[in-house]
Amino acid sequence: MDLDSVANPVLLTATRAGIVESWHRGSLVLLDADGAVEVSFGSPDRPVFARSALKPLQAAAMVDAGYPGRREHLALAAASHDGEPVHRQTARAILTSAGLDEGALLCPPAWPGSEEARVQWVRQGGEPARICHNCSGKHAAMLATCRAAGWETSTYRLPTHPLQVLIRDAVGRYAGQPVAATAIDGCGAPAHAISLTGLARSFAALSRAADGSSAALVSSAVRDHPVHVGGTDRPITHLLADVPGLLAKDGAEAVIAASLPDGRSFAAKLDDGAARGLGPLLAAALSYWRCRGQSVERWRTVPVTGGGERVGALGWSADLRAAVEGPDSHR
pTM above 0.90? Predict the structure, then answer.
């Protein structure tokens, strides 16, 4: 069957004054601690470009290649940050540690992602800059890895570069399946396609990695430095900070993945690429796992506003709600 002809189910709906205004279709999978499918919607075995949800895997591959960054420097390597001062400072520190400056970055110039950071940047006379790009931490870490390994830095984005070959191999190894396709991501580095099931499986592998391994170092860095991974107002940061042991990463075009220390894992993608649905999707997985916390409750829905007031909400579809809150879903 041609999967392109099969409509994925509705995972989220946006209501305004009690009327459904928008529907977000997509695919989702939840795996148990042994890797078996517990919940599945849509086509989770279809390859998708996992985009920045792959960054923890990329960071682990960089550690294997000699990347010396740890703690905040490793968290930023796995980040899609908002260009806040802490993000820019950390990216610069990574470059400085490798004897490089911002001129070595090959991600596109960009404005800071958060409104507050953007306003401050403009007030200081700032223009679009590579250091503000949400992937500048990954690119800085790639450059530092090349310096550590003795590889050419000017071509680090090319799919044929030794670093990118190593990363592609690592993505396939963690996912337990070959990379289905490689393209160019928004930041200019390679983007790899794997299935959501493979993405969930890879996060389980990161969470259960042996102490001291590259995967364990990345997992710890992401958990311990959530602000570096996203930003002050981002759902990924709030949920990482509020749920003990959670490993999670979001990506462009509405991809998200997560796992717990026991190996339970999750991955999802919205067909329309609506980033506003990422918080409710991750909250759905956490609710299924019976993880509690203020942030889990907060991100179950996203307000729909009118005239500055809340007049509706984006939240789970009836089918997703039944799967998340059903009598057999407690774990």
Answer: yes
